[in-house]
Amino acid sequence: MTLFLPRLCDAISLLRFENPAERSPGHGSVVLVTITARSVRNTELMRIQNIDERHIQPQYIVMLPTPSTSHVNYDHIYEPAEDSYLLLDTLASSTETKFLEDRFAPATASPLVLEVGTGSGVVLAFVTAHAEIIFGRSDITTIGTDVNFFACEATAETVRVAVTEQARAGKIPGHFVDCINSDLTTALRHGSVDVLIFNPPYVPTEALPEARSNQEALDGSALQAAFERDSHLLALSYAGGAEGMETTDRLLDQLPDVLSKRGVAYVLLCKQNRPEAVLKRVREGPGGWNAKVVGTSGQKAGWERLCILRIWRP
Amino acid sequence: MKLLTLNFLTCARKSCKSSPAAFPLHPKDAELEQVETEMNAVFLRNILPRLEWEAMRSITTELGLPNLPAETPASEDLVEKDGNGDGDGKDDEAAAGPSQIARDLHALLMETCIASGKLVCGNCGHEYAVKEGIANFLLPSHMV
Known about the structure:
The complex is a heterodimer of chains A (314) and B (144). Chain A is of the alpha/beta class. Chain A is built from 11 helices and 11 strands. Chain B has 144 residues and is α+β, with helices and mostly antiparallel strands.
């Protein structure tokens, strides 16, 4: 479980509380606390101490503010959840920032970062706003794609707000260009993407939602039609078909084409996606690609277990 | 959508991907708008090697915008030569302001946006609509 607390002091008081589980919604241990403190210095690292280990495992916490998505309509756009936040935490982790800084050294050409399926835009906004910390350079270009037109609109706004906030704080954010209404990476030029981020529809379902052209999706004017449209758009954001892998498999197949020579991809998987099999497949496939689990959450029984794979060219 | 985005896009059809004619896409009936953004000298310098210069040149010509220079500018062309630097080019960037070329490039790539119109593939002729600044690259299933 990840708790999201609006202010740093809330987090501290929670952590110091004798029995934190009593104050957390539901039952169970808190394994990770993400602080969305908007007023805290970004680079500050702190180690939470004096914690009852039965309830909270101490972790390093990078206090990068989570982008605001208060303007997003969750009737037809995927609401940021544990999976989204795992991506934020992983990309801001010291191992990944080190990897990315080394791979995209400051004097080299501006890396292009693509997020596929941006939804609310919370991940892309985070990466864009905190480029300096994640990549060690702010001169990165970011772009998004989503099959949902509303998500494209929302993403542009989420990024705009996050970037404006960074600039107001005197920091230099990265450079977002656009969110394209498209299927996976199909609109991108081959070999153009340096960093690809994907939080896929990973839930195993009997079938994938049927493909519909955008016009059909947008034409619904009556209440019933709008409801069906919204359900369809939400289904697209989570339903993954067989083993939850139908869409992810298509994305994995596109990686060798769309990624540049220094390309790297971060792909989120859940346990039912059989991450070990995916790792094996990527490593044993043509081209000698590397793959490694670089982030996990929800290791306790009964919880949704997620992991993030980093896949990169040798 | 920003003009810089066109540097990274092609036709979405599989059969067009290997065709040189599918890049760049050609703007048609484009309504442009200018959206001001902060200029960043380091970004401009490091995006230069990523630009498909010929493609960006043809797009600006098709949009009726002032022509880009024939060759990709060198990174030293982005700083004002008459700045306060000592001329050895080392510490000039901080002292000297951005050159006219840098300002033009910034205005073109990062501030000039297609608010609405179409993007046409030079290979198959398919037209992708741009509405409210968002390009729609979804294809009907028979065209994927």
